Amino acid sequence: MRDPEPAAGAGARRLCLACGAAEPIAAAGPVWPPGHPCPACGHAVPVEEGIPLFAPALADTVAGFDPASFARLATMEEGHFWFVPRNALLGGLAARHAPGARRILEIGCGTGFVLAELARRFPAAQLVGSELHPSGLRTARDRLGARAAFAQMDARAIPAEGAFDLIGAFDVIEHIEEDEAALAAIHGALAPGGVAIVAVPQHPWLWSEADEVAHHARRYRRGEMEAKLKRGGFAVLHSTSYCALPLPLMMASRALARLRRRAGEAPQASEVEAAPPGPVNAALRAVLQAEVALGRAGLRFPVGGSRVVVARRGT
Question: CATH: 2.40.160.20, 3.30.230.10, 3.40.50.11460, 3.40.50.150. Which one for 51-313?
């Protein structure tokens, strides 16, 4: 059974980060038109290649993520055992819990791989991809073309109120030290009744070189993200783990990496997980596709490499 449609309405407003003024957004208008001046103070954010820069001082710095990774990530995602079933999971949850979403924002959209899935699932919706790093946004724009708008911003300061029916943050929040500030910004940018979908790496005991390479600030304990969402004014609708069936293999991989590190060897665990041999990749993808199918049938996984939580903003 699908959840009721989010209650997006006339209260959508864009915010000026210079003076704090709020300006109504037209029902079918863009949220952040490039070069649009604030009607109160006249400030217009800088624009680079058609993309508004709301946090230019942080653009393409190694702040929670190395922007040099985008090009490699874009070549990995298609067909990858982890990314392809994850798209099916996230897209399915979005379609179930926000079926009538008219405006959708993805925080930290990276190369646009998940945003392209949302474009397929929501052909009539206005899509916006945000990212701290313009290099990632350029890759995402190459993938989606004119189907989505893009903005460079800090996830802790989303310059909008009540503007979106659905906001996704997929393996983004763990990169941010002030994670609850980012959740608060998401809450404010959602319309009343709007839905947030948050995916984060789970279980601190799985911490490894792969997390260090990815510039993670943390892995989440079971129930931690749900508690933070509730403190931020959300009602949790759905919570499950992803990468549950391959968890024993993840544990073995991380344990082997720790042993190699103690022996003075290069662990290389992140390389194995990022680019497994073809037959291994195909087998793991089949396992995760089966896991996603079980989730659609109603099974919830208490443990797994990632936690995926769906939450609704109150009215």
Answer: 3.40.50.150
